[in-house]
Write a structure and sequence with these properties.
Chain lengths: ~140, ~160
């Protein structure tokens, strides 16, 4: 059980840390991120702006709650939901043949493509593990 | 089931908190948006003095006069298949690669013309921003891009062996 606990702790720190980082680089350049969102050509100017202002903070706070171990399953639910959304968005973008910067990690972003999907799926696996792992059962890992 | 409800409430609470923090931190930016800024583009001209959009006519004049350096922001493959004669390739989609040394070595007060595919391609604007950050002060973005250039039947240049 102690080993499980360590694994869950590492999962929380890694996933939470990645989300804090991803959010922080976007907070620093909201207009640049707004343009990244606009480039996906799914939403208009106003929604792109609203998303660019709110989404980074959603990532930072969900990541911070996960790292801190407070409301960690709520945070894991939010993060998993965001990842599902990112994966669908990337697939739709690829299907439409758009050549866009994924906008995932600010200026370190790459093009939207399979690499992004694989990364997101990896993070989603961790997120769902944290969300669905039993916590209240006897002998269950209390992560 | 109450557990699921609890998790959902936690997620909603984090979401609400994010809204509050985002609104508080970005209040000045939100006010500017409310006043009508950024409605056409998130690119703020005031942040990038010396960068401006130009039309086909001016682009053609600059090219014919030979006074400006043309930079093609599209991917290398597209560049090889056809480009504005004399243009240099600086692929700039997806964050882009390093701006080549030979471009950085150009006089900072010289005129640069950047373009990409056309339509609403963004890589020329992205390149213009990077060049501005590198100290260039006369950067003209040809918005019509490659599509408008070829559409007007202007000369083009391609790599050997390319159709």
């Amino acid at each position: 059980m102690a080993r499980n606990k360590t694994v869950f702790l590492v999962f929380r720190l890694v996933l939470g840390g990645l989300f804090i980082y991803a959010g922080a680089v976007k907070v620093l350049d909201p207009l640049g991120f707004a343009q990244d969102i606009r480039n996906y050509r799914l939403v208009g100017q106003t929604l792109s702006f609203v998303a660019a202002v709110v989404l980074p903070w959603l990532e930072i706070l969900a990541g911070a709650f996960l790292v801190a171990g407070v409301w960690k399953r709520g945070a894991a639910l939010l993060i998993s939901g965001l990842l599902v959304f990112f994966i669908v968005l990337t697939l739709v973008t690829m299907a439409r043949g758009l050549d866009v910067d994924c906008g995932c990690f600010g200026s370190l972003s790459r093009k939207s493509g399979w690499g992004v999907i694989v990364e997101d799926l990896g993070m989603l696996a961790i997120g769902l593990t944290l969300l669905l792992a039993p916590t209240k059962l006897p002998h269950a890992p209390d992560y | 089931m109450s557990d699921a409800g609890k998790v959902l409430r936690q997620a909603l609470a984090i979401g609400a908190l994010s809204l509050v923090v985002a609104a508080a931190v970005h209040l000045p930016l939100i006010k500017r948006f409310a006043r009508g800024e950024f409605r056409d583009s998130f690119f703020r001209a005031a942040d990038y003095p010396g960068v401006r959009l130009i039309a086909l006519e001016e682009t053609e004049e600059l090219w014919a006069g030979g006074a400006a350096v043309f930079l093609d922001a599209r991917a290398a493959g597209l560049f090889g298949r056809g480009r504005v004669p004399g243009a240099r390739n600086v692929p700039s989609a997806g964050g882009g690669e390093e701006v080549p040394e030979e471009v950085l070595a150009l006089p900072k007060d010289g005129t640069l013309v950047v373009y990409c595919e056309g339509g609403d391609c963004q890589s020329s604007l992205a390149l213009a921003r990077r060049l501005h950050d590198e100290g260039f002060r006369d950067i003209r973005v040809f918005g019509g891009g490659w599509a408008e250039w070829t559409g007007a039947g202007l000369p083009l240049e391609k790599d050997d062996g390319q159709e």
